[in-house]
Amino acid sequence: MRKAIPLAVLALLVAACEAPPPADEAWKAARGPGGVNPDLNGVWQALNEANWDIERHMARSSVELRDGPMGPVPSIATLRMGTLASVPPGLGVVDGGRLPYKPEALAKRDENRLRWSELDPEVKCYLPGIPRANYMGQPFQIFQGENHLEFVYQYAGINRNILMEDPGPAPGDFWMGQSVARWEGDTLVIEVTALNDQTWFDRAGNHHSAAMTVVERFTPTGPDHLLYEATIDDPETFTEPWTMRMPLYRRMEENAMLLDFKCVEFVEELVYGELRRNPLPR
User: Fold this and answer.
1) pLDDT at position 26
2) Cα angle 99-102-106, degrees, rounded to a multiple of 5
3) How far is it, in rounded angstroms, from Cα 205 to Cα 53?
4) Distance CA 80, CA 76 (A)
5) What proportions of the chain, in percent to the nearest 5, are helix, strand and coil?
6) Which of 20, 29, 71, 263 could lock 125 by a disulfide, CB 3.0 to 4.6 Å apart?
7) Beta partners for 79?
């Protein structure tokens, strides 16, 4: 007869299975140009569901829903897209699971979600802002020199200049804001200010105000992995600052590179089609 495993031993076995593998303390990131800071050069990409919804969520039948006879059903705008518009489940990337919305900001999030096809900036190829540009499901490339950094995103061909010296307050608000960087050990820290209030965090309607500031942290955790963290401070929208966290993966194809995704021309019919002399049916 097989003996039962003592509960204490079983608990230790479960803990051992759940515990993360020990860090390789001998590993050190390769040095970049100049030999001082870690080398972040490469093509990187997030592999998660954050662009659908940064919060932990179950699968949904559509990114935009309406009331149906037995519960929510896809909106008219997304109905014929079928599962292409369905939302995959995700564990979320927000520390604590939920965003600390103020009540009025949560109501706006719900309204955004109901009108996703009209309001999400991604639908019309507007620039995604920070932090969303880093996890849109398309790769981005970091170009690192001895005293210069540039981020280039495949989505919409965005070039993001990273300033290594603070020039002072930006003259206005921008879609991608103003990025000022510094090194803290092997972590690249980027403070992003002057972001406008038109961008979202995801396709779930999570939003912010123009008062938002973002502090990003890029930390090498292995030869082909970066830990990405973004701390959001927006007192007009949230009751307290909060942080999202995710790994970024190096694209390992032999010819890994960014390709053209100039989506502005893809939405000309959506944005301007009805202005034709003889518009097509909509």
Assistant:
1) 76
2) 70
3) 8
4) 8
5) 20, 30, 50
6) 263
7) none
Cβ-contact 190, 226 below 8 angstroms: no
What's the token pair of residue 130? 């920070």
Q: Mean pLDDT over residues 66-94, rounded?
A: 95
pLDDT tens per residue, range 65-79: 999 999 999 999 999
User: Nearest 5°: phi and psi at 4?
Assistant: -75, 145
The total number of residues shown for the chain amounts to: 282
- Residue 10's pLDDT is 52
Rounded CA separation 16/277 (Å) = 69
Tokens of residue 271, six digits: 């944005």
Cβ contact 115:64 at 8 Å: yes
CA distance 12 to 18: 10
Task: Compute and round to an integer the Cα radius of gyration of the chain.
Answer: 22
CA 110 to chain centre: 19
Spatial separation of the C-alpha atoms in residues 97 and 78, rounded to whole Å: 27
Q: Is 272 helix (H, G, I), strand (E, B) or coil?
A: helix
Q: Alpha-carbon distance 103 to 238, whole Å?
A: 9
Pairing label, strands 149-153, 140-144 = antiparallel
Strand 242-250, strand 149-153: pairing: unpaired
Q: Cβ of 194: how many Cβ atoms within 10 Å?
A: 16
C-alpha to C-alpha distance for 189 and 71, rounded to whole angstroms? 45
